[in-house]
């Protein structure tokens, strides 16, 4: 039951109030940390006050505690100020979304920020993209135009994406505590950073894989890598060069996309999960179909049958079947070998489970007449009882 509740959050309709407004409402949780910091600051000030009223007690303190006592007014004042600022920002974001940091991050990326529409329309742009195209990795949602994390990033404006994975250990007596950090660092064309924390290595890898497909021209690397340092420390002249190189990569990728569309193999038939057929196929439409099937929990497969058989290095295939799988699980493919006669079904096939990113590549390549590499795929044999694992290819 718990997994079903989690999956529901990833459905296209999303929360009633919208993803962005839900995120700003969630800022109220910051009041907890603000309260703890305030309490710590007030405690330091109280310790200093008590020391002023009881000077004899201060004389009994050791050197380390005396140093701490002398720092108490400064530490207390800083903590109180930090707590008040944190509480103010949490309340502002939750109760006044128009002035929230999330709304500002969207507004600042528009061509004319001063003429930006009201906050409802700002949030609606992001929400609609996430409902229609979003993939979710923990609290990070990635659409085709926007990335929702701690802030919002416009995908066409992204210039660098970096993954951070750290493992820290601490010991207390006989206990060893391991703390992991998984973060995604995104920098845009304004040299503004968005840092979003995730909960697992799987979320981090999935988000990076998705971002790589949505923003292929950006610079990728790990946190604190050379690529990261180049972007983080770039001056105005260096940044102009980085932006120019980005535009060159983007233009080359766009040209490659146009070339791939020209190379698209015609006369393919797509059989949808409901049994209907269509010949209007593209890499984007197949990717959208796969995404929708996974979000809607569709368990039935869809298949592609080319009018002209696809020949690989060793085999000729007559059809490809895709089993979409669950929202966070792998995608399964099955390819059937050509029997040698169009009237006879194939005797052998190959099947494998792949990641979502690999699945997109398989589908886009198939549309262009490129068969997947079946090295390592499980060999299947047609029997009177259906497809079963084969021991060898005869």
General description of the model:
The chain is α+β, with helices and mostly antiparallel strands. Helices cover 43% and strands 24% of the residues. It contains twelve helices and 17 strands. The strands form three sheets. Strands 9, 10, 11, 12, 13, 14, 15, 16 and 17 form a nine-stranded antiparallel sheet that branches. Strands 1-2-3-4 form a four-stranded antiparallel sheet. A hairpin with a 2-residue loop joins β16 (378-383) and β17. The chain is elongated. 26% of the residues are buried. The model is unreliable at 1-13 (pLDDT under 50).
Layout: helices, strands, pairs:
Layout lengths: L1 H7 L10 H7 L4 H24 L1 H5 L3 H33 L5 H7 L11 H15 L1 E3 L2 E3 L3 E3 L3 E3 L3 E15 L2 E14 L4 E6 L2 H14 L4 E4 L3 H7 L3 H27 L5 E4 L5 E2 L4 H13 L6 E5 L3 E2 L4 E8 L7 E7 L10 E7 L1 H12 L10 E6 L2 E4 L5
Parallel strand pairs: 5-8
Antiparallel strand pairs: 1-2, 2-3, 3-4, 5-6, 6-7, 9-10, 9-11, 11-13, 12-13, 13-14, 14-15, 15-16, 16-17
Kindly list the characteristics that best describe this protein:
394 residues; elongated; disordered N terminus; four-stranded antiparallel sheet; alpha+beta; nine-stranded antiparallel sheet
């Amino acid at each position: 039951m718990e997994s079903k509740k989690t999956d529901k959050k990833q459905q296209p309709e999303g929360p009633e109030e919208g993803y962005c407004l839900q995120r700003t409402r969630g800022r109220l949780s910051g009041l907890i940390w603000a309260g703890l910091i305030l309490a710590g600051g007030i405690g330091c000030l109280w310790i200093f006050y008590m020391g002023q009223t009881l000077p004899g007690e201060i004389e009994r303190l050791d050197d380390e505690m005396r140093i701490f006592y002398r720092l108490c007014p400064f530490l207390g004042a800083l903590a109180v100020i930090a707590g008040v600022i944190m509480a103010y920002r949490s309340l502002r974001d939750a109760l006044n979304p128009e002035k929230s940091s999330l709304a500002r991050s969207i507004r600042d990326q528009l061509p004319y920020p001063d003429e930006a529409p009201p906050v409802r329309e700002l949030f609606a742009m992001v929400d609609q993209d996430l409902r229609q195209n979003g993939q979710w990795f923990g609290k990070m949602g990635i659409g085709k135009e926007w990335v929702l994390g701690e802030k919002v990033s416009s995908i066409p404006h992204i210039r660098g994406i970096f993954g951070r994975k750290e493992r820290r250990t601490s010991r207390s007596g006989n206990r060893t505590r391991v703390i992991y950090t998984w973060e995604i660092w995104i920098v845009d064309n304004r040299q503004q950073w968005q840092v979003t924390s995730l909960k697992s290595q799987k979320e981090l890898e999935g988000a990076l894989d998705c971002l790589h497909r949505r923003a292929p021209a950006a610079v990728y690397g790990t946190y604190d890598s050379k690529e990261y340092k180049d972007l983080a420390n770039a001056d105005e002249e260096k940044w102009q060069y980085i932006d120019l190189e980005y535009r060159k990569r983007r233009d080359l990728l766009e040209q490659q996309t146009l070339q791939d569309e020209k190379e698209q193999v015609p006369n393919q038939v797509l059989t949808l999960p409901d049994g209907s057929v269509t010949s209007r196929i593209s890499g984007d439409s197949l990717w959208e179909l796969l995404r929708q099937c996974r979000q809607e929990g569709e368990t039935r497969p869809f298949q592609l049958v080319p009018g002209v058989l696809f020949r690989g290095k060793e085999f000729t295939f007559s059809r490809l079947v895709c089993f979409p799988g669950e929202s966070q699980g792998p995608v399964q493919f099955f390819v059937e070998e050509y029997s040698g006669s169009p009237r006879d079904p194939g005797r052998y096939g190959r099947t494998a489970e792949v990641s979502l990113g690999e699945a997109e590549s398989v589908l886009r390549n198939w549309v262009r007449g490129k068969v997947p590499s079946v090295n390592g795929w499980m060999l299947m044999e047609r029997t009177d009882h259906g497809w079963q694992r084969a021991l060898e290819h005869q």
